[in-house]
Amino acid sequence: MFSLINPSKIFGWIEKLINFINSIFFIVLSLALTFALIISPPDYLQGDSVRIMYVHVPSAWIALAAYTCIALLSIMRFIFKLKNLNLISKSIAPIGLLFTCLAIITGSLWGQPTWGTWWVWDARITSMFFLLIFYILFVLSNKLIKEEEKANKVSSVIAIVGLVNIPIIKYSVDWWNTLHQPKSIDILKGTSSIHASMLAPLTLMLLVLLLYCALIFLMKYKTEIIRIKKKNIKRI
Amino acid sequence: MIQNFISMNGYGFFVWLSFSITILTCGILYYKTYKTLKKYEKAFAKELSQLSEADRKIILEKSKVANQVFASYNKSI
After folding, report:
1. Complex ipTM, two decimals?
2. Interface test with A, best of B15, B24, B72 (most A CBs within 10 A)
3. Which of A154, B20, B33, B72 would you call most buried, defined as having the most Cβ atoms within 10 angstroms of its Cβ?
4. Nearest to A156 by CA among A165, A168, A146, A148
5. Burial of B15 (0-12, 13-18, 19+ CB in 10 A)
6. DSSP character at residue A196
7. What ranges do the domains of chain B cover?
8. Beta strands in chain A (DSSP E)
9. Using the beta-carbon criterion (under 8 Å), do A102 and B22 form an inter-chain contact?
10. What is the mean pLDDT of chain B?
11. What confidence score (pLDDT) does residue B77 get?
12. How far apart are CA A181 and CA B59, in angstroms?
């Protein structure tokens, strides 16, 4: 199974995938932006400010999913001792960090017209802020610790510790009284209280951002593989 | 109509700023990632081209990654 993530074996596929995503990306982006900014109706309560949801919600989902992936890969790294898993984690981290920042910033921009405040230390926002700190620590540990094996260990421990925060973010709106509304979409049950006219642009924006994440991940992963090969050129 | 679209019934500042920040930061990360990838590809290909003919041949035969990076670099110049 692990041979599937062998860098040498999948290297050829990375370029093909990058080219494929590049070829469809702007078509899907144009479609998603048309739906999000023009076709979808304003909300009966929030008016046009609801359109911020189309960047805020997918950003938050991606931030959580990316961190969960990093933490699970870190656990697998300790169990299976596979160095390649670190390359994958390191390639996912900038994506997660970017989307955590975007979720917080767009959330703040949505909060001002909706709640009348840019920021409040409620459970959801505070736990997202902690997620940002864990991302920063993960990225910094990989950048600042010169010895690679030590950097990998430290960053893996940070990722695993931060995993505790993920269910807190997810269920914060159920466990505590917060300004955030309860969840509108239950992925596990496959139910949604959002009208189809708003669900369509939300799904399209999620698709665009997922394509973007795949593109960045593949380019980062390719860079990491080349960096390792360059470092070990004498051993090839 | 265009005026309404831009003002978004008074929410234009918040909506446009959210989308602009998202697109801008995503664009910056893409550009930075792409530049770094090209820098590493170039440096790796350069290192390979500086090797002796015999060493390079062995490496290119043994490593698929080296082979592909070297081939794509040579194609681009």
Report:
1. 0.91
2. B15
3. B33
4. A148
5. buried
6. H
7. 37-77
8. 185-186, 191-192
9. yes
10. 88
11. 62
12. 58
